[in-house]
Amino acid sequence: MTKANKSINIFVDVDDTFVRSYGMKRIPITASINHLKNIKKEGAILYCWSTGGADYARQSAEEFGIANLFTAFLPKPQIMIDDQSIQNWKKLIQVHPLSCSNKTLENYQSELAACRRIPLKSLFCITVMIIVKAIIINELVD
Ligand SMILES: [Mg+2]
User: What is the pTM of this model?
Assistant: First the structure.
């Protein structure tokens, strides 16, 4: 496996991600389902999780014939025991299902590579420096 197609662990929600419910009717979100099929083909490792629990996640995936795409089914975490806060995870991005249909696994890899290259603290300092410089230059011109 080359670096270009290095695999990524992707956690996929159920409700309003690949299925939408109207009363008792459950409607597949085909753009999301096709996207999941595409990135699976490209080598993504997919996990399906739901606030409704692991069984609900599995049943929902089976309902739309996509259970085979997933490595495992999980409940969404409620408590995480971890020495790092999620905000400090270096390689984590959240993608809304409405904005993912045109993305490839390579797109995600690029986004992860760019992820947090500049810490937010540094970004803030750089922004302040630019503003201060602009003010100084503005005063010199006047
Ligand atoms: Mg949801």
Answer: 0.77
